[in-house]
Amino acid sequence: MMGARHAVSRRGFVGGLATAVGYLGLKPDGELWAQGGPPRAGLAPLAAPRRQDYDSLAKLASNENPYGPSDLVLKAMSDAFKYSNRYGYPDGDIQEAIAKHHGVDPDNILLGAGSSEILEVVGLAFLETGQKVVGVEPTYGTVYQQATSIRADAIRVPLLEDFRQDIPGIIKATNRNYRDVGFVYLCNPNNPIGRIITAQEVRQVLDSIPEDMPVLIDEAYHHFIDDPAYATSVPYVLEGRPVIIARTFSKISGLAGMRLGYAVAPRELIQRMRPYSTGTVNALVKWGGVAALNDTETNERVKRVNRELRTKAIAELEGLGYSVIPSETNFFMVHIRRPVQPVITAFREKGVLVGRPFPPMLDYLRVSVGTADEMSRFSTAFKQVFTTAAASRSQ
Question: Can you give the pTM of this predicted structure?
Answer without folding.
Answer: 0.87
